[in-house]
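Technical note accompanying the year-one report. For the benefit of new consortium partners, we illustrate the data format agreed upon in the data management plan: each record pairs a sequence with a structure-token string. No post-processing was applied to the example shown here.
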Amino acid sequence: MAHRVDRTMLESVFPPGDLATLTGTALDAILHQPTREFMRDVGLPDRSWLEVSKALLGGEPTIGFQLVAEKFPELDFGFQHWMFMGHILNDTIAVDITTGQVFVRPNGEEPHLLNSSIDEFVYALYLLEIERPNYDFEEIIEEDPEGDESEGYDPGAEDRVREQMMAADPVAFATPHSTWDTVLEQVAEKFF
């Protein structure tokens, strides 16, 4: 199955050593075939915005969010099928091992759907990395130590990323004040 983003695309913006693929128990736990293939062949960027779970990388995934299910009984998200992937900022990221959908629990608040699939989620991280030279203060300074905007710097990264993410996966911004909104606020403020 073709994915929106592949390993070659990711390696064009992330160092190959920062792309975490799953094997063994962690991979076997994923029942959704396209998600399993993606996690085996493409992987997750364990860098910048996403901090991948060390337990997941070590082959000991955490599956099932029983306490979250008890706290939010009105939500029918199949919490028992969630596999903890890591964090973006203070938000917990999980993938449903039966559907491939990516969910978020923002800073301990009510969880919601973040992306319709794992490849859409990683595509969003890919878009953010492409734009990094236009918002990451350290990269901007490396380009121009005097602190002036460099020739290559192109403002408006947050708008470009939002537009491309929405075109690819409208679910990403379906919930007001989602994790992606928070990330793009930081991009706009060059707060990374």
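Partners are asked to follow this layout when depositing records. The chain has one domain: 7-131+156-188.
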